[in-house]
Specification:
137 residues, alpha/beta, 2,3-Dihydroxybiphenyl 1,2-Dioxygenase, domain 1, Signal recognition particle alu RNA binding heterodimer, srp9/1, 2 domains, 2 helices, 36% strand, elongated
Length: 137
């Protein structure tokens, strides 16, 4: 069994996935536009370059997403993507990338459960938990 998160974007899925690939170490596995799929009379006429389905891999996890029309897309409010990285420097670098154009909700800091942890909303509206893996004994 495998569980994969699926996000809806408001026309900026391509930009988000390209950003995640460049700055967070993900690897885009596929990206299909609405124009690549069968005709859909429910989609706006100018929606052909919007993303119908995309997949990006982070380690063993696949994150999937698509663009949906603005009247159907809602901001993420109570679900976070958690990205754990090896080492404090990598976690701080990833956090910096996530808050670039976004906002820090809980600044990156040492906690009792991790050498670094922070919460943020990125420029695409996605909520992130970024942490450095605890040192191995």
């Amino acid at each position: 069994m495998k569980l994969s998160p699926y996000l809806n974007f408001n026309g900026n899925c391509r930009a988000a996935f390209l950003y995640y690939e460049k700055h967070l170490g993900g690897k885009i596995q596929m990206m299909m536009t609405h124009g690549d799929g069968p005709p859909n009379p429910n989609m706006p006429a100018d929606w052909g370059t919007a993303i119908l389905h995309a997949q990006i891999q982070f380690g063993d996890t696949i994150l999937m997403a698509s663009d949906v029309p603005p009247d159907r897309q809602q901001p993420i409010r109570s679900a976070y993507l958690h990205l754990e990285l090896e080492g404090i420097e990598e976690a701080e670098r990833a956090f910096g990338a996530v808050i670039d154009g976004g906002e820090a909700i809980m600044p990156m800091a040492e906690t009792f459960w991790a050498p670094r942890f922070g919460l943020a909303r990125d420029a695409f509206g996605v909520l992130w938990m970024i942490s450095a893996a605890p040192a191995k004994p």
